[in-house]
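Help!! Second protein's tokens look totally different from the first
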Amino acid sequence: MDRFEAARHLGLADTEVVTVTDTADGTAVRVKDGSERLVTDEGVFALNDHPATANFRRWDGSDAPAEALAEAREAAAPNEQPTAGESTEDRDGKGGEVPDGNADAVLDWVGEDRDRAARALEVEVEREHPRSTLVSKLRKLAES
């Protein structure tokens, strides 16, 4: 399962999913809010104590999913902080350019990132026929 599939399965925006790691028990997912979840054929389980997963069943199987996420977190630790004007998604090659798709695709790519909203707004207003509703939404996000 990749980041986009995990986001769809969990009902989250793509930008909310930080790490996806396949394990023998299922797919371990770390979310931007700090919650960690395990997606299995039996459902979604909480891997850590977090308010966002308070209503999830707690995983009581092997420690492999939590360990896999811990290893991924440790491996990424030196690179987690973006430089000024850069998001972590830009650096890892998963989103440096504004998508050339429908308004929903652009807004999904932006998420709540003010810098991305500003970049998307620049691209949109330069179009031959800018989409007024998208421009309005991007302005609000960029100025928030």
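Here's the second one for comparison:
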Amino acid sequence: MDQLDAEPSEVWILDVESLEMTSDEVVKELQDLTWRPGARFPLMSNISARQGILNWGASSSLSQFLLEMSAGGLGGIEAAGIAAAIRYTYGKFRDRSQGDPWGESISEDVALAQAKARIVEHYGVAEDALSVQRAETNAADKRFEFTFAHTDGRLFGAEVGVIKDSPTCMRLWREAPRT
């Protein structure tokens, strides 16, 4: 399998503290998002959850949920609808958790470093092979959006920071090189 086929088109990341739901409940809700109405099979996706307990001066439970999806076969309107459903669902999870690791806001430099680190982690590319093509700050939503060009022609993107209704949610995406 070619690396481009193995990479998810989008990665949705949610880090939460003291979530008032079980991991199984969260995974089930994420799994429901991968089924289109009337479809025989779910969208190509991978859902994973990681949990931990932090005892460093105070105790807290931490959870991270990843929803990796392939956009294969989705039209623009359908993809936008799924993105809106994911944002809504992540916002609901966020409302049922405590704490906010980002605080009120983050700087663009911190957001840029976080975006690059997550792209390197999830797509296995070298950080020095990424160059910023677009950087946009949405102050009202406390969100940063970045587009990076890779030396092999692929485009990568990230939304970082306080995404509307889900402050610690982060979205990554990639596009194959244009031919």
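Reply: Different proteins will give different token patterns, so don't panic. The chain has four helices and seven strands.
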